[in-house]
What we know:
This protein has helices spanning about 30-40, 45-60, 70-85, and strands at about 20-25, 60-70, 95-100. The chain is an alpha+beta fold. The protein has a three-stranded antiparallel sheet with strand order 2-1-3.
Amino acid sequence: MTxxxxxxxxxxxxxYDIPYAAIILNDDKTSFDVVMLIxxxxxxxxxEEAEQITMxxxxxxxxxxxxxxxxEEAExxxxTAEGVARTFGMPLRVTPQxxx
Length: 100
């Protein structure tokens, strides 16, 4: 699997010493609806943005749910997203990744 490309443009107004992104990883169990719900409710994406990210996850094996965050913010967002997925019995993995 190739590394996701993370750009600083999503929240360019914020500055961080070491910025992080939250990366959603594809799996064969988690439904599109749950991924869409997580993207809109946890990461504040519009329906259109969530649809595009969900397709990126499906087609590329991963997608950038949000960035830039501090390491702590990214870790918290990832835990929250995984918690939402678990309430639906889904094994979705969301991981923080340093933006290089």
